[in-house]
From TrEMBL:
Belongs to the methyltransferase superfamily. LCMT family. Its EC number is 2.1.1.233. This is Leucine carboxyl methyltransferase 1. The keyword DNA repair does not apply. GO terms for biological process: methylation; regulation of signal transduction. It comes from Petrolisthes manimaculis. SUPFAM superfamilies: S-adenosyl-L-methionine-dependent methyltransferases (SSF53335). GO terms for molecular function: protein C-terminal leucine carboxyl O-methyltransferase activity.
Length: 318
């Protein structure tokens, strides 16, 4: 029998899972308008309403920044690396890299089984997706929540359960001695601080040449941040890790206090100023903004934080 807190946890988990659908819908809208190219997102999201211009620009900045950093990591390692996408949702990064001929030794995605089961189904039903994870010398292994291809692995796991995470990492054939890039987009904030700290420390202890890229909220203490928090809470999303998202400094400290050799954090106002100017000029013409202040406020409340266990990855920046 469920206890009251068990029921609350299940409801909160379902609300967090629903944020994947929201993010995927936003990405599909931005892609349809021409903010960036992604011919795979439509396989996961069939239709969507048009989003506000500042939302589209926000997702553009988020997506292009991750792609730039991932490309740099692959280039520096000559592809002799692996990528772990934590809370991957319906992200299409793996297929976009394959399309560009950028290969890595391993690409692993973790998320709730409720998300990975749907993604497994979409991949299984879509020739273009399945072909990219297949290899003539390696049979794809597929069950309800997991898919294991030659280099691509999709695995259902609760990231708060470190014992399960350890087991899934082992099953995914990740090599601790290889340079490893970890990605997380609005994931840690939904975990209790103790649980996210345990996860980050375990990664730092196990992967000696790791780079972590974390995209998440910051500056939650002002009025704009309070509205963001309240909107999420009304949807049932309990931001259990919000205390680590107060400032870019608290974002840095969460890594430094959990075994990482170094960390840096920059809000999206700063990130936007570092993006290729020709790309910024191009997307600024897609939709005109009547009110620039709203975009600035939005950018001021999200940040990219990078952390490393190997100091050479401190140079993988915008």
């Amino acid at each position: 029998m469920f206890r009251r807190n068990d029921v609350d946890s299940v409801g909160s988990d379902e609300a967090v899972i629903a944020t994947n659908d929201d993010a995927s819908s936003c990405k599909r809208c931005a892609v349809a308008l021409g903010y960036w190219k992604d011919r795979y997102i439509n396989y996961f999201v069939k239709a969507t309403d048009r989003k506000a211009p500042e939302i589209n620009r926000g997702y553009f900045a988020r997506t292009v920044t991750i792609k730039i950093l991932v490309d740099k990591f692959i280039e520096v390692t000559n592809g002799n690396c692996q990528i772990v996408n934590i809370g991957a949702g319906f992200d299409t990064l793996y297929w976009r890299l394959v399309e560009e001929g950028k290969s890595v030794k391993g690409f692993v995605e973790f998320d709730f089984p409720g998300v990975t089961s749907r993604k497994c189904l979409y991949i299984q039903r879509t020739k273009q997706l399945l072909q990219a994870v297949s290899d003539e010398d390696y049979d794809v292994k597929l069950n309800r929540n997991n898919l294991h291809g030659h280099t691509y692995k999709l695995t259902g796991v609760d990231l708060r359960n470190l014992t399960d995470v350890e087991a899934k990492v082992k099953e995914s054939d990740l090599q601790p001695d290889l340079p490893t890039l970890f990605l997380a987009e609005c994931v840690l904030v939904y975990m209790p601080l103790q649980k996210s700290a345990q996860l980050l420390r375990w990664i730092a202890d196990r992967f000696k040449s790791a780079l972590f890229i974390n995209y998440e909220m910051v500056n939650l203490g002002d009025r704009f941040g309070e509205v963001m928090l309240n909107n999420l809470r009304t949807r049932g999303c309990d931001l259990a890790g919000a205390d680590a998202c107060q400032t870019t400094e608290t974002q840095r400290k969460r890594f430094l206090e959990n075994g990482w050799a170094g960390a840096d954090s920059c809000d999206m106002v700063g990130i936007w100023s570092r993006l290729p100017p020709e790309e910024v000029a191009r997307v600024s013409q897609i939709e005109l903004l009547d009110e620039q202040e709203l975009l600035r406020q939005l950018f001021a409340h999200y940040a990219f934080t990078t952390a490393w266990t190997d100091h050479r990855w401190s140079e993988v920046t915008l």
